[in-house]
């Protein structure tokens, strides 16, 4: 295992800098998810099937999984402030060019650039709080940075869909291009110089994986995130077919789910900053119970309650697993964060794939029972595995 590099002291610029980093995570997640509400109009205008247009969602996630460790290595000793600014400028360019693209292949190619931005931003941003605020505030700052995920789901994607309904899908990409550019300027103005703590080499990855606590953290991410997306991808048909929830109520319920996720993000961040193991044990148990319940005919009230509990529990997954990895590898924060991003994005793709196979082979509720089994497996791995201190 590599030794801690103490040559670079912590750099503190405070909460405005943390807010700028949170805006960056919001921007990359919103951009990644933007096609969700625009897929039909996008496919129609570009003369493609909705299945083919779905590549605009698949490609960025897969590229991000590989880009995170590669960019962390490529960044070497570069100042992380300017790396983040460059990545946000790349995101802005990809969005603005996407608004003008004449065909689907070019749009998918531009989404490759989005994937590069996602992987790079998350690999750097996920472990940055410790360098921006005093030690006593690191937990809250990490939660704020990770709130970009939940806020993008609650506000970013619906806002992008609304703009698309008013001005077309191209307008949504153009607006996100402008937002990304503004965030790049904010990062340049608000972040302090962030020299590399220790340049990452590929040899660091097998060294990290020799740590039992790191392996446990990555395995728990794979189980919880795969389980979540196996179920969440098919939440609408389950709510409608199993619990007889009216289609007109689904959007409101998903908004409530997103708001619960924001609350869960901050609660999970505060708890995991003190004790990541106990927090992940609780999250895994609650997720298993909530997702299992949603596979049963609960009725509208029961389904609403289970969905809100699911939102709170899953809202804490990202920040809690990241806190686990930072505790497991404090000497290699960027390397651990790059592994976090890689496994997280692979888990998203794997979860949606497994859920789809279960739905096609058995029924929509079976995807929820699969998610329950994966959450319980995460509970057992956390309980039995080596603890991050």
Strand content: under 5%
Note poorly predicted spans. Answer: 1-10
Task: Summarize the main sheet.
Answer: none
Calculate the terminal CA-CA distance, rounded to whole Å: 16 Å
What is the fold-level CATH name, i.e. the topology of the largest domain? Growth Hormone, Chain: A
Q: Considering DSSP H and I runs of 4 or more, what fraction of the residues is helical?
A: over 70%
Roughly what is the average pLDDT, rounded to an integer? 85
Give the quaternary arrangement of the chains: single chain
Molecular structure report:
- GO terms for molecular function: transmembrane transporter activity.
- Keywords: Cell membrane, Membrane, Transmembrane, Transmembrane helix.
- InterPro entries: MFS, MFS_dom, MFS_Efflux_Transporters, MFS_trans_sf.
- Pfam families: MFS_1.
- The protein has about 400 residues and is mainly α.
- About 80% of the residues lie in helices and about 0% in strands.
- The two termini are about 15 Å apart.
- α1 (about 15-35) packs across α8 (about 140-165), α4 (about 55-75) packs antiparallel against α17 (about 335-360) and α5 (about 80-100) packs antiparallel against α9.
- The protein has helices spanning about 15-35, 40-45, 50-55, 55-75, 80-100, 105-125, 130, 140-165, 170-190, 205-210, 210-230, 235-240, 245-275, 275-295, 300-315, 315-330, 335-360, 365-385.
- Mean pLDDT is about 85; it is low at about 1-10.
- The protein has two domains: about 15-190, MFS general substrate transporter like domains (Growth Hormone, Chain: A); about 205-385, Up-down Bundle (Growth Hormone, Chain: A).
- The protein has 18 helices and no strands.
- The longest helix has 30 residues, at about 140-165.
């Amino acid at each position: 295992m590599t030794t801690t590099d103490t040559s670079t002291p912590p750099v503190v610029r405070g909460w405005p800098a943390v807010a700028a980093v949170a805006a960056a995570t919001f921007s990359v997640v919103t951009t990644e998810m933007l096609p969700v509400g625009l897929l039909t109009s996008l496919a129609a205008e570009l003369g493609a099937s909705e299945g083919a247009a779905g590549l605009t969602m698949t490609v960025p996630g897969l590229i991000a999984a590989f880009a995170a460790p590669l960019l962390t290595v490529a960044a070497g000793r570069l100042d992380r402030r300017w790396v983040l600014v460059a990545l946000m400028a790349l995101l802005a360019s990809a969005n603005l060019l996407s608004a003008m693209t004449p065909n689907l292949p070019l749009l998918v190619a531009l989404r490759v650039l989005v994937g590069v931005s996602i992987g790079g931003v998350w690999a750097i941003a996920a472990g940055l709080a410790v360098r921006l605020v005093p030690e006593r505030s690191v937990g809250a700052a990490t939660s704020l940075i990770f709130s970009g995920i939940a806020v993008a789901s609650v506000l970013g994607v619906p806002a992008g869909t609304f703009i698309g309904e008013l001005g077309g899908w191209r307008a949504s990409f153009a607006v996100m291009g402008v937002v990304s550019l503004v965030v790049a300027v904010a990062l340049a103005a608000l972040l302090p110089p962030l020299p590399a703590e220790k340049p990452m080499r590929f040899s660091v990855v097998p060294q990290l994986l020799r740590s039992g606590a790191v392996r446990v953290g990555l395995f728990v991410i794979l189980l919880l995130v795969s389980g979540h997306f196996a179920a969440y991808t098919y939440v609408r048909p389950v709510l409608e077919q199993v619990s007889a929830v009216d289609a007109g109520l689904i959007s409101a319920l998903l908004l409530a789910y997103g708001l619960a996720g924001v609350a869960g993000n901050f609660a999970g961040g505060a708890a995991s900053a003190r004790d990541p193991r106990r927090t992940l044990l609780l999250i895994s148990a609650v997720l298993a119970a909530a997702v299992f319940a949603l596979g049963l005919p609960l009725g509208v009230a029961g389904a609403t309650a289970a969905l809100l509990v699911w939102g709170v529990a899953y809202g804490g997954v990202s920040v809690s697993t990241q806190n686990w990895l930072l505790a497991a590898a404090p000497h290699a924060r960027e390397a651990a964060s790059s592994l976090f991003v890689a496994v997280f994005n692979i888990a998203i793709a794997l979860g949606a794939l497994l859920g789809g196979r279960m739905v096609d082979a058995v029924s929509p509720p079976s995807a929820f029972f699969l998610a329950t089994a994966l959450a319980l497996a995460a509970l057992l791995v956390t309980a039995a595995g080596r603890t991050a201190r």
